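Worked example

This section walks through a single chain of length 640. The input is the sequence exactly as stored; nothing has been trimmed or padded.
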Amino acid sequence: MSHPLYLTKSDLKTARNCSTKLYYKKLGYPTVDRVDGYTRILADGNFIVSKIAHLLYPEGIYISAHLHSDESIAKAAQETIDYLKQENVVLFEPVLYSAHKLARADILVKQGDRLEIIEIRSKGFDSNAHEDLIKYRNLSLFRNKRTGKVGGEWRHIIEDVAYQVGILQEMLRASLPELQENIDTYLLVPDKAKTTQIDSLASYFQIQRLATHRNSFSKFNGIKVDFTGDLQEIHNDQFLTKVNITTEVSELIAPTIASAQKYINYLIDKSPEIFAPISKSCKDCEYRASDRDPRDGFKECWGDLAEEKFHILDLYQMGRIGGNETPLVNEMIQQQKVSMFDVPLEELNDYTYSYRQLVQIEYTKKNKEWISEHLPPIMKQIEYPIHFIDFETSRMAIPYRAGMRTYEQVAFQWSCHTIAAPDQAPVQTEWLDLDNIFPNFQFAESLMECLGDRGTILTWATHENSVLRDIYYQMQTYDYHNPELQTWLANTAKLGNKGQSHLVDMNALTLKHYFHPSMKGRTSLKCVLPAVWKTNAYLHEIPYFQEYYRQVDGEILNPYDALPQLQIGDRIQVVNEGAGAMLAYQDLMYGELRDLSLDNPELQSLRSQWKELLYQYCRLDTMAMVIIWTHWQNLCRQAK
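Given that input, the structure is written out below as tokens.
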């Protein structure tokens, strides 16, 4: 094991998901989803929430620590203890350490004999729903409605705080026994029931990269956040809520510490008990080899079973066969049967999923594409002009403007490819807003102007319908007056449980009517496109598809992998998936690339390059749908 040996909050969460992953994590195995601190903190909006929390405690002292050795950990923990000897003190990210258990609290407040731990989270919290549960059902958002025990989506956060409290109690017993061990605990979270009173709040914060120590376990590791607004406004604003979780935390301290000690013992003793049995849960294992590190945790766990070409883990909804409680796949894995062809067909009797599973097994064996008999008549019913649309959106913790709530839908980009008539080339239209204003109404108006009220609108999945529905209701909430737009939205999107969307979902069509062996059990656009593209050479000859054709070492690339990269600053950048688009947008809004000076040509050039990356990615999403649609038309003609 790497040294020093410790178990952090993140380690404990990893171990509870899969104890083998803890083993791989401690050995530094590569993961497929590793991102740097700047990207991670930009993604969840936590940097602004954390900065606001710190601004609320201007007397706070930040504990700087590089936790690379036993000595450095002990020194940082002792610094925390030394500060706690003061009568009153507020500490930011104090180091808590005891018997190999390591954590950093977000805020630790001491006022006389009273201690508080405040956990800062960007997760949205509804104080109205919370208070109603307390008042009418003697429950809370933190408790299971059936059992009354701490549970649900907040449990892992409360466990994190319980871990901190348990460590701090041990530290106090050892070093400050005169202090009471009763510690009040709170969450500080964005409240979905409240609005901000500050216009363009996010614009007062800017994030910058820093070269800092890697092993600090700080929420601000690798970044610096500057605030340029009015501090008094921050103190007066109410969109963050401080919620007492002392009772819930107290219930979880003992089991959390006991669980942590179990995993620590596994690590110290190098116990084989740390290795969990393989199961259906391994499907999403992130410990896979990378270009720089050949160690592959998944393959080490599965051995020769990892090499099965037609793996049972690739079967559509494989975990549901036999029921969620006793899934057949786990039994088969124990029997060393991991081919999808080993699944007894009589077990595929779930009306919801079995038809798709049977199609996948049959046509994977045949190594052939499949379309249902219903796809050709469906295709004939699609009216021209056909509009293929895709949206890029973001839900940010910080409201856009005064009077708005946290995590409201923000639609910042759309792309549309329109085929006006049969055999005509698609025409692309696009829209992107980077003016740091709430863009949704201009987004919808420009889209309405593009689409009009003729033809058919195609999407991939239901996201676009949800966005248009949200904008419809935002028009009412914020009294945005445009009767034409309101009517168009109501006639286009499904607004509630009743009614019908006039958007045609190509993902739903794929699930019911199309299969390609290369897709395996997936139907996302990012899986269907390369399956179609790599195995149908005639598509490469169509002029308006040719820009996406590229071969490397004799292999035809997925068009998303063929998107041009740009040298932006000191990094090679590419946007080829939705999360990357959201991050690029948020970086342009309040990251390093925010436009602070119109007279800065270098910054303007960087922003223009990022905008081009956003454009080319969104364009490909809609062109990908055109490529698949074109291929479906060809298959339907052949089926006659």
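What to look for: The first strand starts at residue 61 and ends at 62.
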